[in-house]
């Protein structure tokens, strides 16, 4: 009788042990696979600057960016800046899920910009951050001899002097469902600057992030510090250096296929050559511009469309 009870007990235990062993093996196999972080940011732009995000293959982003005049320009004279505006229209297209190309046109200095962005590394259970590379090129199409926002006169001797270039390494981490932070080491090159004491090459460092308040509302902010030398300009030109670091704060509103961004910033520029290296506004002086970005995504992925039918 004892022998039968022991045999019966082992028969009950063995399947349970085998099941536990199988689950442990599956967990070990799954732990070897990377689980990628999704939606570190909801859009490819944070406020003025770019995020680490790209768009899906065969998808098109249409951007409308708008900056009004300075809030401190008065009620009667300029209706707190609402009587004037700068605008940028832009398109982005996903060549792959990790690689996009983009182009836009800004009313500020009638500038055309072209850029490409590639997601090199992705945050996962194997890697702590997402890393994306960005390269851009801009063409100023103003007539030579125009007055810049800094008040300086700009004259071009050739079309090549109208070009500017920039490169960025975007590094971000999504800490949880609410908080994401990003750093943006940046290099800019201007083929022509308004004063010999202003270098053609400029290094800058940006930091930014978002904090999700609700499912649809998010606080965002970004700051870019340029490593310029105001003293050299002031000694050469005999006047105060005209440019400041760009600081922006805003709110993102998600509405289905749209992302609507409302913000305040001291920069009227909406591409890197303008807001990183040529921001003339100062928060201390009340040079604050209200603005917004609207993005709409369109799908040209035929395979996905047929799959959903």
Q: Mind explaining what this structure looks like?
A:
It is built from five helices and 14 strands. By secondary structure, the chain is of the alpha+beta class. It is elongated. It starts with a helix and ends with a helix.
Can you give me a brief rundown of this structure?
17% of the residues lie in helices and 42% in strands. It has 309 residues and is of the alpha+beta class.
Protein topology:
Elements: H1 2-32, E1 59-70, H2 75-78, E2 85-94, E3 99-106, E4 111-121, E5 130-140, E6 146-147, E7 153-154, E8 163-174, E9 179-190, E10 201-212, E11 217-226, H3 230-237, E12 246-255, E13 258-265, H4 272-275, E14 289-299, H5 302-308
Antiparallel strand pairs: 1-2, 1-14, 2-3, 3-4, 4-5, 5-8, 6-7, 8-9, 9-10, 10-11, 11-12, 12-13, 13-14
> Which bin fits the share of residues in helices?
10-25%
Arithmetic mean pLDDT:
89
| Structural class by helix and strand composition | alpha+beta
Largest sheet: 12 strands, antiparallel, barrel
Number of strand segments: 14
N-to-C CA distance: 65 Å
Describe the strand arrangement of the main beta sheet, using strand numbers. Answer: 1-2-3-4-5-8-9-10-11-12-13-14
Strand percentage: 35-45%
Low-confidence stretches: 2-10
Shape, please?
elongated
Number of helices: 5
Could you spell the SSE succession in H and E letters?
A: HEHEEEEEEEEEEHEEHEH
